[in-house]
């Protein structure tokens, strides 16, 4: 008999409960000084409550929201291109587990509700021990059917960060190597991914001819009605275009 | 007794089945020539099967994947700024249901596995009847706790599109009005959202001083190992920086 369901709740009686959890949803967060593994809060149990039929009901609101979300969602990976203009050095890592010997920028998955720049800064710190601040958004990659993206499209965002600490203390579990490399060497090396190489060239272009040539900078703007604010990223707009004074 | 669960399956016996569905997860897709309402495939029933205890089991694999996805996901909304360089006109709509009298760019939710530019082109066509092609990525908005984003952060991406049809046939259910507006008028109007106004100014800047000043253009690059390709968006890189020939 197909179990078609009705009502606001999915009504189910659990015939066996073993007192152990179904699964402990551990999600990898990158390491560094903290180098931690977090349990995903709230993901390891399903909320249930006694119902008026003497059974147990599990509210499906959350699944419903996830189903709707499912169709339009994707995961977001941030990478931080930490570039020191004073020394022309860029922070790069080699993965321990994959892409061995390939230099790339440190980074990792965004937390829920986390700003783009905040993710990049946090992941860089956790993975390498380097403190930095957000400068701009440099590049976006969209890839479908990525094996690591839970069957979703992924969004890979590369930010330009400015370092304000310089002593590397990288996560040994995650990285094989981590170093400050001359930007020109990164542009020339073959031991890197196509995207890293491309962004290295982009950074060199910005370094030589002005970062305004490559940056999407950020600004906070008010949302209509809701009273909320959002972050808007685009090419820097000259002041006269912002105000439109004398520009008829 | 708290209903902790065990094993690969969430084992549940349904004490009542009414033969009706729990919910029909209709998701709004924008209209236009098609102007359709789609049921979200597979979202309206939960798959279940008889288990060896004489009850019904519901595989939780999918929920597990969604839980993992949950932490890193967000929804993606695309808007298309369809600008006709020959006439300096931009395609704008007014929502029927919200933001009344506020001019904005047409757009909507991305489908799973859909490219950024493809979503913008599709949504513009469905909402307004205008055919266009992708030119560039202009701006990205990140907003948290948006009421329409199922409790997730949302990612709002605005693309520059070039029209190749010009006769408006807009979705009456979705839009109150739709027209080709002089870009300068959109810059000046107060009946618009802050983000639309900002992007209108950005477009005016690009129109007057070159779209290379504002565009993130796209290129397809090969992924390492997987044999897949991905789309990479960033400021156009001059040819000498791509090849690095004679640039030591």
Automatic annotation (TrEMBL), chains A, B:
Tagged with keyword Metal-binding: no
EC number: 3.6.1.-
UniProt key word Cytoplasm: yes
Protein origin, superkingdom: Eukaryota
Pfam families registered for this protein in UniProt: NUDIX
Record's keyword terms, sorted: Cytoplasm, Hydrolase, Mitochondrion, Nucleus
Compartments in which it is found: Cytoplasm; Nucleus; Mitochondrion
Domain Nudix hydrolase: 73-205
Enzyme class: hydrolase
Function recorded in the entry: May contribute to the regulation of cell proliferation.
Subunit architecture: Monomer and homodimer.
Similarity remark: Belongs to the Nudix hydrolase family.
Protein name listed in UniProt: Nucleoside diphosphate-linked moiety X motif 6
Gene: NUDT6
